[in-house]
Amino acid sequence: MARTLLSAIDIAIDNIPQASETTIGAVGAYAVILTTALPELGITLTSSYLAAMIGDIAASHLTSVPGGPPIIDQHVLPGRQPGQTHAQTCLLDHVAEVRNVLDAFHRSSALVTVAIANATLAEADRTWSAQDQPPPPTP
């Protein structure tokens, strides 16, 4: 599975930008995997999503934070979700989970913001769609 680095996901804590990297990968038409790492904070969130393209989406999140055991959270995103495509829905849920993890890590004593550009949603779609394309020929 190829992973693509997504751009234009801006994370800030108390208006201070945080270094972060988010990647997306897709396995078939039904599974999407997203990972966000915040190296200066030592926090990583990996989310996987599974859906049959109609109806509910199963979401699993694995969070690693300094000084604590890994945390696994699973839930179902019921019915129609925000986002035009499966990849967009997964990305929107993932960035919401990133915000929730940071909010919990700081025990709500900090203002946590996560912003995502429309171009990044389109980038997620391209990655999801490109997995069905054969790789380009090597010279």
Summarize the structure.
The protein has 139 residues and is α+β, with helices and mostly antiparallel strands. It has 2 helices and 9 strands, in the order E-E-E-E-E-E-E-E-H-E-H. The chain is 24% helix and 40% strand.
Runs in which pLDDT lies below 50 for 5 or more consecutive residues are none
Strand order of the largest sheet: 1-4-5-6-7-8
Radius of gyration: 15 Å
Identify the overall geometry. globular
Largest sheet: 6 strands, antiparallel
Q: What is the end-to-end distance?
A: 22 Å
Helix content: 10-25%
Per DSSP, what share of the residues sits in E-state strands of 2 or more residues?
35-45%
What does this structure look like?
It is a single chain. Helix content is about 25%, strand content about 40%. The chain is α+β, with helices and mostly antiparallel strands. It has one domain (about 5-130). The strands form two sheets. A six-stranded antiparallel beta sheet has the order 1-4-5-6-7-8, with helices on one face. Helix 1 crosses helix 2. The protein is globular and about 40 Å long. The two termini are about 20 Å apart. The mean pLDDT is about 90.
Write the layout of secondary structure elements.
Blueprint: E1 3-6, E2 9-13, E3 16-18, E4 21-27, E5 31-38, E6 43-51, E7 57-64, E8 71-77, H1 86-105, E9 112-116, H2 118-130
Antiparallel strand pairs: 1-4, 2-3, 2-9, 4-5, 5-6, 6-7, 7-8
Summarize this structure as a short list of keywords or feature phrases.
single chain, about 140 residues, alpha+beta, six-stranded antiparallel β-sheet, three-stranded antiparallel β-sheet, about 40% strand, globular
